[in-house]
Design goal:
By secondary structure, the chain is mainly beta. It contains one helix and eleven strands; from the N terminus they run αβββββββββββ. The protein has two domains: 33 residues; 145 residues, Lipocalin (Beta Barrel). The strands form three sheets. It has a four-stranded antiparallel β-sheet, with no helix packed on it.
């Protein structure tokens, strides 16, 4: 009798798990969780909801791409399922720290690069279309280490960038940059 009871409970539990597409237990109101990554270190730094109800994520990946760490852009649907992903970078370390959907449906990414530019680290601005394909990129920086931490599209269609810069006299400073719609 006890064996039949246990079998019925196990059968019921397995049946409930089979029809659920959400993570059971932890999120009683329809929540979910997802992980993205590969065999090496991968880090996410910013997420925003997109106009279609999905999400856009930016960070860095050592598992995929062209070099050391590469900037990693991931688009998901409303349930967090990956729709597409893109990597950007060169042979050295590159990262994305901020992302926003732009008024044209594309995305603006801000981070840092050691693969491009003139210094050790340079602030790195990338504009993509709605599918994450690069339209243009710009680097900002000098001989010291510079990097970007936040980007926002402005009312005139340009961009405001916040970063950090190492001036020639040492230390580090806030760095605020205003660009036009082409990142210049």
């Amino acid at each position: 009798m006890l064996l039949r009871y246990i079998a019925a409970v196990v059968s019921l539990a397995l049946g409930l798990l089979a029809v659920s597409d959400e993570v059971p237990g932890r999120w009683a109101q329809g929540g979910w969780d997802r992980t993205f990554g590969g065999p090496k270190d991968d880090h996410g730094y910013s997420v925003r909801q997109t106009s279609d109800g999905g999400f856009i994520l930016v960070g860095e990946t050592k598992s995929f791409g062209a070099g050391d760490f590469d900037l990693w852009l991931i688009k998901t649907d409303a349930k967090g399922n990956m729709v597409w992903n893109r990597t950007f970078g060169g042979e050295d370390w590159d990262y994305g720290y901020s992302v926003q959907q732009t008024s044209d449906g594309g995305f603006i990414l801000l981070g840092g690069t050691r693969s491009f530019g003139v210094g050790g680290w340079d602030l790195w601005l990338i504009k993509t279309d709605g599918e994450g394909h690069m339209l243009w990129q710009r680097t900002f920086g000098g001989e010291g280490d510079d990097g970007g931490v936040s980007v926002q599209q402005t009312s005139d269609g340009g961009f405001i960038l916040l970063g950090v810069t190492e001036p020639p006299l040492g230390g580090s400073d806030f760095w605020l940059i205003k660009t036009d719609a082409e990142g210049r």
